[in-house]
Amino acid sequence: MKILKVAVIGTGFIGKQHIEAIRRIPGTEVVAVVDSNEEMAKRTSEQFFIPKYYKDCKELLADIDVDVIHNCTPSAMHYPISKEAVENGKHVYCEKPFTLTCTESEELVTLAKEYKVAAGVNFNYRQNAMVQEMNQRVENGSIGNLLTVYGEYIQDWMLYDTDYDWRLDPKLGGESRAIADIGSHCFDTIQFVCGKKIVSVYANLTTVHPVRKKMEKADGTFSASTGKVLEEMSIHSEDFAYIMVKFEDGMQGLFHVSQVAAGKKNAFKINVCGAGSSLEWNQERPDKLWIGHRDSGNEELYVGAQYMTGEAKRYATLPNGHPVGWADAMRNGIENFYESIQKDSYLENQQNYVTFEDAHYIMKIVEACLDSNKSQSWVDVL
Questions:
Q1: pLDDT (tens digit, 9 = 90+) per residue, 315-348?
Q2: Whether residue 258 is found in the same domain as residue 298
Q3: Containing domain of residue 105, as a range?
Q4: DSSP readout, 253-298?
Q5: What are the DSSP calls for 47-62, one per residue?
């Protein structure tokens, strides 16, 4: 097994999470970080004892040989940086949302195939042990035929009109915010659990604060802004949305996404109802799975390989009673991606991480939601 040399581009909150996850995986070495803010790049390289730092991707590619690039930049940079990396023959693991438009995501799918590189996107929730268990129980039919699904992803970090983040700028974050940012996790996770695609949507989007105040001090995502008001900004992206969906076999579902729900920090929950029993998973209690029955007592299953099903067993990396959660799911996804590189299997059709092609389909769902909101009608995912 070769040592994979890795560079992480973007040193904000999510970039640091990638660095920590990578370092938990044998056979890897983070050799460089990149950030347009050179001081941040330098500070991160010193903090994590990473040998090199750069101000842009071109400097990196010209100076040092790397096998894998992690693209942890703002959404608008996912397309150009991933494209440049792929065209230089580098494997790419990109943050979500994959791109700003389907046109961009489609081109990256084509390029990844042309240059024959591994190409993954960090939809980490499907990599949680109990989400894997849900998938196995749906797949083996133990809960009966699926009847309905429900998901909600609700947060409060955009509740006040003084909350401002780069995601609110359509040039950086795109036309959609709540749906692209957290609704996309709902789509990926539920499609994975159910083993079927969403093919049609009916979406209703709402902007609570059409004007927001850009404050003097902003410490980044999930942090409150302080100081004096620098500028009032017109907002066109959604703060919350309700989305009805139809799957390829006709099954229906409902999603609620919001970034203005007071007291909810990162409350992602999915529920699937089968003809025999139901399953519910809550991201804020990630090592537990609720199993509902009609004619007997309900159950709560804790992560533990001895209690789990099929392929899900290998995601129980700690003994029962030792919670596995968000950071573990991120590591699982990156490890699966790296394993496909080590085994030279990344060109095969089925992967146990989200590929560029999978992420492109999620972008099509996001765009269908925007179109549905405009037309106030059902829109097919084409």
A1: 998 888 888 899 999 999 999 999 999 999 999 9
A2: yes
A3: 4-123
A4: EEEEEES--TT-SSEEEEEEEESS-EEEEETTSTTEEEEE-SSS--
A5: HTT-SEEESSHHHHHH
